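Thread title: Can someone regenerate the structure for this chain?

I was given the following input by a collaborator and told the matching structure tokens would be attached. They weren't. Posting the sequence so someone can regenerate them.
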Amino acid sequence: MPKNSKVVKRELDDEVIESVKDLLSNEDSADDAFKKSELIVDVQEEKDIDVEEESEVEDERPAWNSKLQYILAQVGFSVGLGNVWRFPYLCQKNGGGAYLLPYLILLLVIGIPLFFLELSVGQRIRRGSIGVWNYISPKLGGIGFASCVVCFFVALYYNVIIGWSLFYFSQSFQQPLPWDQCPLVKNASHTFVEPECEKSSATTYYWYREALNISSSISESGGLNWKMTVCLLAAWVVVCLAMIKGIQSSGKIMYFSSLFPYVVLICFLIRALLLNGSVDGIRHMFTPKLEMMLEPKVWREAATQVFFALGLGFGGVIAFSSYNKRDNNCHFDAVLVSFINFFTSVLATLVVFAVLGFKANVINEKCIAENSKVIIKFLKMGNISQDIIPHHINLSAVTAEDYHLVYDIIQKVKEEEFSALHLNSCQTEDELNKAVQGTGLAFIAFTEAMTHFPASPFWSVMFFLMLVNLGLGSMFGTIEGIITPVVDTFKVRKEILTVMCCFLAFCIGLIFVQRSGNYFVTMFDDYSATLPLLIVVILENIAVSFVYGIDKFMEDLKDMLGFAPNRYYYYMWKYISPLMLLSLLIASVVNMGLSPPGYNAWIEDKASEEFLSYPTWGLVVCILLMVLAILPVPAAFIIRHCNLIDNSSGNLASVTYKRGRVLKEPVNLEGDDASLIHGKISSEMSSPNFGKNIYRKQSGSPTLDTAPNGRYGIGYLMADMPDMPESDL
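Best answer:
Regenerated them for you:
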């Protein structure tokens, strides 16, 4: 550059500054909005200004007190009830130890890349799900609203399960436990065992009759169950109080709610390993059935479990990460939380099958004792010859090995008549093969096992307190997935919104505490989240990889993390993950189509479950749940594409971003620019090239008048005029 050009440039800079001073001196006295802002002339480099701006924004947005608190929040959200009562069932059902291999493969292919993606966009844009996807593409802004709807649906019934756990927790301070034995019924003449309990079991009876007081079908409401209504209210009060201050209040609770379950699981594992039969349960669990790995169903169920275990698509992951510092290493967080989740599932599986192994051993001992008495009876009657029984075996105190030997001998000798003897083989494996999951595992099988524990009330209190904490950790993330994006978008007070959200959810949740409420929990669990969340995450992947641009996103990550992520993620996000998710969606739709829509109803007279189809209105509700959850996506696209709503109205979360942050003044741009400035990443966004950087620092939140072209009248924002020549000032 010639020497005289530097002189000319300095003169132009001085003219610019003087021009701005003239504008300020001649501004309209009625322009209150402009008066509330001040002009700052800064001679620092643009990079320094960006740092100042970002630190200023970070100061305004709440932040985690520590990295540990944030990790515990993400772990608490991802590690939930499914790790305890769903993963062990899938592991047993799909090949035992062999199931862990497809699960790990899919964790690497689907889980970690998509979890990393959600953490990254939340941390980069520092907004909830609505603001994030508006930033990526306003036409795909409905993704954030769809996440909020799904979160609300899931919160409705998930907190009911916490209410059930609170009820059992409150009933555990008794010796013996109330579900230890069947109740006795007295009439005028004699006392007898409750028939419904006698036909099933004490724990089954307590769950269906005492706790739920369940009706025989979804069409029979039966009125409210007042005990569960009180527990549901208590659950929502706890959630509301914990969330009312956002991460400032919930973050502190995470130290207990996220860590306590691990303490309980480890205590249960140590205690269970000291009981007879626990090793048999663990051995049964992890004995690999390698041939099952070739079945597509195993891979589909593993992919589904990976997907839901990490909480993808809910918005909670994005909401939590949005409170991070911009330079946080979210890649490390993604890998760490994913593997903590996996090892928690394995730990829970060890605990569950150690306890179920002990329970199977207890039941097996009872079976052997009862059948030994039957054999002794047959020996006395002469139906079985004494000569076939080995002399060293005492049937009055027989071991499991000796009983199985006698059983095999009788089966061979009495080959034709054996079935008429009605003897049971009493194999521990038969009991362990009875696959149970969900509420059947937590409130029936596990509670029955704990009745045989020494000091059973203590273990019952610990177990149900653990369930409450597991549920609360997931609920905090789910509610945060609703509160954060709504607060970011509509600027409402977080306290008021939290109270209103919890109150509304409690009122709607009363349908789950009717006598038929358990059937509605099943309906919502099956239809409100599965397909909508899959569609949401597919759209998230497409939005980042193809709409925003995977190359831009990788540059963003390099700028944010300080290093370029492994190229592995590029290929996962662009090719593998979308194809895997699409395959999973198709498989889920096909599976849903082949499975008749229905539920397992408890029939009081038979004291057993029976599969019933949903009535017509029930099918309509199932369809509505799926439609309502995904409806915001096409609705937002049509509204944006057809310009049905004026962007200046602020609807659809029209926010403007500059260098990864929200501008402090509402900007009304043409078309889609109300949410994203030309879809550019920070490194590509132009900035004015003055000799001295001029920008305005707002001291309040004024409402500025706009010129006909949609820009601010006299108070130009530098972010809003990237190519403006100096002479225009």
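Confidence is low (pLDDT under 50) at residues 16-21, 23-59, 648-729.
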